[in-house]
Design a protein that fits this description.
The chain has helices spanning 58-75, 85-106, 154-160, 166-171, 219-222, 227-236, 241-254, 308-347; strands at 2-3, 13-20, 30-39, 42-53, 114-115, 117-123, 126-132, 136-141, 144-147, 177-178, 206-207, 213-217, 261-268, 302-303. The protein has 348 residues and is an alpha+beta fold. The strands form three sheets. Strands 1, 3, 4, 5, 6, 7 and 11 form a seven-stranded antiparallel β-sheet that branches. The protein has a five-stranded antiparallel β-sheet with strand order 2-13-12-8-9. Helix 6 packs antiparallel against helix 7.
Length: 348
């Protein structure tokens, strides 16, 4: 497909982006990309954010490779049919996974490298999303945030299963474990199920309304600031996306900046797609969760294959054993205290 110049040839879309290494002196392992192609009579827009995992420059290499592979994949396509956009995104991510994984096998300095990825594509005013890991995509509509991606993390799975509350997840020792990554294994499972909540039914091909803002970010943003801060920033800078990006990064750094921070904003300036009827709650996507259950804060990821139920049961069993021992010790203490008091009171 023919590449379009950014931003001069964008139609009905505004874009802003920014990245920062954070405040702890680490390399910036985040990568991002925004690409536009002329696809027949209409432009196809694709935004990507990748958060690399690995020591030294490995994470940086994984994320940068991934963004470049996604770009090259779409550039070489002659055309993309609307009903095949998700298929092509899936194939692009799988190709990136293959190349990152294979390179890590042959270069010692890159062993274990991997990355998260979020992709948001807009075609004819409709939004298509895919992700792997705990980087996120949000939709800001009518001054309210809607999280569209569910973190692939240990604590998110535990919260979704009802084993932890969102508050408990913030302090859980496994809070920095992600369950999926790109490049960590020979194959990758791409998630293309947007989150639906009680108040907002999401779907692939969602018609964007005028003023809608799609936000892609690494966990360096959402680990540091909450949705309320993001909403406040977007509302105050609705007409200036560059200012919004700058303030979001500043807020994350002011809150500690413990990780790299990357933000991409896409704003639909005019509604061009017909709004489809919202599905009934019973027909919601598989990723239908409560807003609280989806609000587990991500942390700097470490890719560890953890058996969720087994590890959680073992941890709970350990806590129960400690509790039983403490209760038994208390009972023994009470018994001995009773004997002691009876003996000395009788002796008196």
């Amino acid at each position: 497909m023919e590449r379009l110049d950014f931003p001069t040839q964008l139609k009905n879309l505004k874009v802003a982006h920014g990245t920062h290494e954070g405040m702890v002196g680490k390399n910036n392992e985040d990568s991002w990309g925004f690409f536009a192609w002329q696809n027949g009579q209409h432009p196809l827009y694709v935004s990507v954010v990748a958060d690399g995992v690995g020591g030294q420059t490995a994470g940086e290499t994984a994320s940068l490779m991934t963004v470049e592979i996604i770009e090259n994949y779409f550039t070489t396509l002659p055309k993309v049919e609307e009903n095949e956009i998700l298929k092509h995104i899936d194939e692009a991510i799988r190709e990136a996974n293959h190349q990152v994984y294979e390179r890590a096998l042959v270069e010692d300095a890159l062993k274990g490298m991997a990355t998260t990825i979020v992709i948001a594509a807009v075609y004819e005013g409709r939004l298509y999303t895919s992700h792997v890991g705990d980087s996120r995509i949000y939709l800001w509509r009518d001054k309210e945030m809607h999280q569209l991606t569910l973190d692939h993390s240990w604590v998110q799975e535990a919260v979704t299963a009802g084993l932890l509350t969102a508050q408990q997840a913030k302090q859980h020792p496994n809070r920095n474990i992600i369950r999926r990554s790109l490049g960590g294994m020979a194959d990758v499972e791409v998630d293309q199920r947007p989150i639906s909540t009680e108040s907002f039914q999401a779907s692939q091909g969602l018609a964007l309304q005028a003023g809608d803002v799609v936000l892609l970010c690494s966990d360096g943003l959402t680990d540091m600031i909450g949705e309320e801060d993001i909403e406040d920033t977007l509302e105050r800078h609705e007409q200036d996306l560059d200012a919004a990006v700058g303030e979001l990064i500043d807020r994350a750094n002011d809150a500690g900046g413990r990780d790299n921070i990357t933000v991409v904003l896409m704003q639909q300036t005019a509604q061009t797609a017909e709004v489809k009827p919202q599905p009934a709650p019973a027909a919601a996507p598989t990723n239908s969760v409560s807003k609280a259950a989806a609000a587990v804060p991500p942390h700097t990821p470490r890719v560890v294959p953890v058996a969720l139920d087994k590890q959680y049961r073992e941890e709970q069993a350990r806590k129960r054993r400690i509790l039983y021992v403490a209760i038994l010790a208390l009972v023994i203490l009470v018994v001995f205290l009773g004997i002691y008091l009876r003996f000395f009171s009788g002796a008196g």
